[in-house]
TrEMBL record:
<dbReference type="GO" id="GO:0005524">
    <property type="term" value="F:ATP binding"/>
</dbReference>
<comment type="similarity">
    <text>Belongs to the protein kinase superfamily.</text>
</comment>
<dbReference type="InterPro" id="IPR050236">
    <property type="entry name" value="Ser_Thr_kinase_AGC"/>
</dbReference>
<dbReference type="InterPro" id="IPR008271">
    <property type="entry name" value="Ser/Thr_kinase_AS"/>
</dbReference>
<dbReference type="InterPro" id="IPR011009">
    <property type="entry name" value="Kinase-like_dom_sf"/>
</dbReference>
<dbReference type="GO" id="GO:0004674">
    <property type="term" value="F:protein serine/threonine kinase activity"/>
</dbReference>
<feature type="domain" description="Protein kinase">
    <location>
        <begin position="22"/>
        <end position="280"/>
    </location>
</feature>
<keyword id="KW-0723">Serine/threonine-protein kinase</keyword>
<feature type="binding site">
    <location>
        <position position="61"/>
    </location>
    <ligand>
        <name>ATP</name>
    </ligand>
</feature>
<dbReference type="InterPro" id="IPR000961">
    <property type="entry name" value="AGC-kinase_C"/>
</dbReference>
<keyword id="KW-0418">Kinase</keyword>
<dbReference type="Pfam" id="PF00069">
    <property type="entry name" value="Pkinase"/>
</dbReference>
<keyword id="KW-0547">Nucleotide-binding</keyword>
<keyword id="KW-0067">ATP-binding</keyword>
<protein>
    <recommendedName>
        <fullName>non-specific serine/threonine protein kinase</fullName>
        <ecNumber>2.7.11.1</ecNumber>
    </recommendedName>
</protein>
<dbReference type="GO" id="GO:0035556">
    <property type="term" value="P:intracellular signal transduction"/>
</dbReference>
<dbReference type="InterPro" id="IPR017441">
    <property type="entry name" value="Protein_kinase_ATP_BS"/>
</dbReference>
Amino acid sequence: MGNCAQADLSYDPSITISLSNFDIKYAIGKGGFGKVFRVQHKISGKFYAMKEIKKSLVIAKMSASSIMNERRLLGMLNHPFLVNLHYAFHDRNNLYLVLDLMSGGDLRYYFKSYGQALSESSLKFLVSCIITGLEYFHSFRIIHRDLKPENLLFDSNGYLHITDFGIALSSQGNNSFTSSGTPGYMSPEVMCNQDHTIVSDFFALGVIMYESITTSRPYMGHTRNDVKNAILAKQIKLTKNEQPLWTMQGLDFVNRLLKRKPEHRLGFHGVQELKRHPWLEGWDWEKLEAFALESPFKPTKVDNFDKNQINSEWAYTKVKVSAVTSQNLFAGYTYDSTSIIKKHSQE
């Protein structure tokens, strides 16, 4: 992975993409460092999601490494069940990522909009989408480490895609030095600063499934330490008495994903353990990957997002970004997928 990432950072003067190449329509999302806009490429007419990242906030939060980490990974990876990168560029104040437009909104927005548990058949479709994306992601021996409803986006046809790779990390070597993620979705081994592998992403998948079934997370708390103590205190398990409408195979699938010890967790020996589980027996993976299955989720609007969240006040910082600082921290940020495709076709 390291060699690929280094090659991806090399400066390419032929990439001249800039903000002037796009018509900005309106904001459709908001993250920790800026907003996300629906944009249209002026020449091709294609619509994308453009993530605007404020350099001053990145520097103030000492997050340049995670921003560059996501950019490197997006330049390396491309898969139908991920949110893929098309262009990346920056100016004096901002960084920009131009990504696949996922107009169906994120899974969290769906939870808030409908406020009810998902049926077993509907959740099986969602889980299959996530597994397909993780299978590709994990083939590079990379752990996502922040799998949660906010980072799972629906396209206009109701298929789910994985996004946000800022804290993703190689599973090769000892990872006990880092413990990043979102409390409530972090695996016990990550919470306890232990070495962790791709199986930690399967614990997060179990949390998402549990939340989809019960409308609450299995381990709750006001602080990260509260969540950690809740995990260590008790092994959560769904039962048939609690969920009478669910099959035993479905409940077993969730319960095994939520095993606290990674060696006991479904997927410890690879993603095929999930795909071979009785709950997914007979699932048509080929049709799913060809987008030939009808999704049980039907986005109702052109853009599905929380307008109150988009319009909330933004916390600006007084940190000034010098040209030298920008060059040092964000060297090699530019990317143009069309230029790469053109180069490969000429080789």
